[in-house]
Amino acid sequence: MPEVRHSVCALDCPDTCSLLVNVDGGKGSHLRGDPTHPITRGFLCGKVARYLEREYSPERLLYPQKRIGSKGAGKFERISWDEALGTIAVRLKSISADHGSEAILPYSYAGTMGLLNGGGMDRRFFHRLGASRLDRTICSSAGGAGLAAMLGFKYGTEPEQFRHSKLIIAWGANILGNNVHLWPFIVDARRNGARLYTIDPVRNRTGRLSDKHFSIFPGSDLALALGLMHVIIGENLHDADYVASYTEGFDALKELAAKYPPERVEALTGIDRADVVSLAREYATTRPAVIRVNYGTQRSERGGTAVRAIAALPALIGSWREIGGGLQLSTSQSFRLNKEALEMPELQYVSPLRREARIVNMSELGKALTTLDHPAVKAMIVYNSNPAAIAPNQNLVLKGMRREDLFTVVLEQFQTDTADHADILLPVTTFLEHTDLYLAYGHYYLQLARPALPAPGETKSNVDIFRLLAERMGFEDQCFLDSEDDMIRTLLNSEHPFVKGITIEQLERERSVRLNVSPEGQPFLPFAQGGFGTASGKCNFHAEALDYQPPTESRLGAAELRSKFPLEMISAKSHDSMNSTFGNQSWTHRQTSVLLLNRADAEPRGITSGDRVRMFNARGSCTLVAEVDGEVRSGVVCAPSVRWNKLSPDGLNVNALTSDRLTDMGGGATFYSCLVEVEKCGD
Q1: How many independent structural domains does the chain possess?
Q2: How far, in whole angstroms, is CA 296 from its chain's centroid?
Q3: How many Å from the N-terminal Cα to the C-terminal Cα in the chain?
Q4: CB 8 within 8 A of CB 573
Q5: What are phi and psi of 662, to 5 degrees?
Q6: What per-residue string of b and e applies to 570-608 under the rule 16 or more CB within 10 Å gives b?
Q7: CATH of the domain at 101
Q8: Domain check: are 177 and 306 in the same one?
Q9: Do 416 and 319 belong together in one domain?
Q10: Are residues 378 and 455 in the same domain?
Q11: Dihedral of alpha carbons 482, 485, 486, 491, sign
Q12: What number of other Cβ atoms are within 10 A of residue 464's Cβ?
């Protein structure tokens, strides 16, 4: 009989699945969901169900290597850990001495959502080094800022409450592709008579299974939210008692919403005016109604404000009072762990800087590597990310990464496009091979995972690597000797009532522990009686910040750009990958090699399904295969992301076309505000 060991999925997904691994002779033979977890309940997405293929792939990096070819050529030779660590330490010391420690830039995101390997020992190391700080904005910062601006907290409706809803609106949320463990609760709700509506420029898997799909123009979500408010307030469908008791700024909101009648909203969003009216009425009068808004809505120029306005809707109709009402974007802020004690920003004051280091926005990496000075970036250490593939304005990013004077260290499991640009390439463990603590941003359960499988070759965890680098740099601070359990206890040392009392021993026994967000057996209704995290404790609509302007790169934006590049490009997440994590797998490559077009756009360009096409704008181009169907409306094209550059014919992916223009809030990336043209490739 195989031994069954527990683990937790570390990939960037709201679900944070609890896993069981069958282990035979030290090798994993079967991976499945843990049926005891209240949310993920024993099944896995298609990506993680096949994770053991990744775990035991012959392409796995197993030993330290150094570059022997030109930057980007991907040619390496094996070296020892001693040589690798020594080389890194010598170069970092030299760069710090010659240019200042801020010439060193860490670059990471959510390749693992584990708190220790995602943002623990690494943060201590870079703070002590005095390196530039990275503003980690590339995925969710605009939406997070918008949600916090309206509600004060990043809390939301529990996923298990969705089964009680009578109307579920998936707004920019491909639930079946990116949040699949919410789906069974929606199925339960629909069996009890609930309706599911989707709002998205792409009619994806979730849209195809919805009761009604609203095909919205990219980047116009704010206008739709204001249009719904126009109807709700104008017809007195709002909850006057909730608004009076728990909100501020209603009169100004009413005045603003009056400027967005259905006919104007139709012109701005592409949604028929009658549908705007019927959706508003149905949302306001169906009880309970819940919105699952996801980060697709915030990847445009006005994306932060769009989320802010959408987050106002439950307060307007009072649905926060009800089980199965409200809204969910993220639950992450409820995990009130002691992150400051884990990351130790105070170490900057004993670094060579003796002050806080400058902040570099990761969404502007190309600019940082090519134009930033005082000092210029002379070293970059990349982990938990693949910026050569996922960062916007890709050609500028690659130009910077190919600088011969840029010393680059990459911690990776596979030889990604970023790994090809490394001077030193270090092999790291997968989440099945190390200890970590996991929060979630789609539910309220904290989880602990121990190594389920032995680490292969000479792979090491991020925690171990940064601990070893600290030693080589001569850092004698006691914190660099902390074990993983020490770090977990540090995180749990919080006085916040949501976390207080949870121990590592409890997590060890129970695997997943619900936060103390409500008494046992009772639902969490975070704003049923106000309690917003604002200065007044009320939801402040701040109407003065909610007016809509179309994105510069949109059908209603800059006329000169539209004349050259008339199509709006969405690079939505592909169904069976996780950003670029599974980019070397054949099924991911197939999904990310296509461009979805509407027939009305394909036929005038002489394009049919299966044709090779070139998509381009002033920033760059990439080659894809056309798929002409009904998933996108006319004027919109969709290129599922993120394809590995090296697997495309021209060595580039869709991020060669996306800009490094930032969102209105949170400094996020505007991936979905992107104008392009498409042409058929010659034979």
Answers
A1: 3
A2: 10
A3: 57
A4: no
A5: -100, 160
A6: bbbbbbbbbbbbbbbbeebbebbbbbbbbeebbeebebe
A7: 3.40.50.740
A8: yes
A9: no
A10: yes
A11: positive
A12: 17
DSSP structural state of residue 428: B
Angle between helices 250-257 and 221-234 (to 10 degrees): 110
Say if residues 352 and 474 touch (Cβ distance below 8 Å): no
Q: Who contacts 559 (Cβ-Cβ below 8 Å, separation ≥6)?
A: none
Rounded average pLDDT per 10-residue block, the chain, 683 residues: 95 96 96 96 92 97 97 97 98 98 98 97 98 97 97 97 98 95 98 98 96 98 98 98 98 98 98 98 98 96 98 98 98 98 98 97 98 98 98 98 98 98 98 98 98 98 98 98 98 98 97 96 97 96 97 96 97 84 83 95 97 98 94 96 94 97 97 98 80
**What would the DSSP string read from start to end of 40-82?**
TTT---HHHHTHHHHHT-TT---S-EEE-SSTTS--EEE--HH
Q: Which of 479, 505, 522 is the endpoint of a domain?
A: 479
| DSSP states of 557-573 | S-HHHHHH--EEEE-PB
Give the residue carrying structure tokens 């009130």: 336
- Same domain, yes or no, for 115 and 231? no
For residues 427 and 321, membership in a common domain is answered with no
Task: Show Cβ contacts of residue 495 under 8 Å, excluding neighbours closer than 6 positions.
Answer: none
pLDDT of residue 579: 86
Indicate whether 160 and 123 sit together in one domain.
Answer: no
Range of the domain at 610: 559-680
What was the pLDDT predicted at 630? 81
Give every CB contact of residue 568 below 8 A, 6+ residues apart in sequence.
201, 217, 218, 219, 553, 554, 555, 635, 636, 637, 674, 675, 676
* Domain stops at, among 479, 505, 527: 479
CATH number of the domain to which 313 belongs: 3.40.228.10
Which one-letter DSSP state was computed for residue 170?
Answer: E
Q: State the pTM of this model.
A: 0.97
pLDDT at 587: 76
Does one domain contain both 271 and 168? yes
CA distance 458 to 465: 11
User: Is 4 inside a domain boundary?
Assistant: no
What are the start-end ranges of the E strands in 294-361? 326-328, 359-361
Which token pair is 433? 């091979």
Q: How many CB atoms lie within 10 A of CB 485?
A: 14
Cα 56 to Cα 464: distance, rounded to the nearest angstrom: 22
Do 297 and 210 sit in the same domain of this protein?
Answer: yes
In order, the DSSP letters of 118-149 are: HHTHHHHHHHHHTPPEEE--TTTHHHHHHHHH
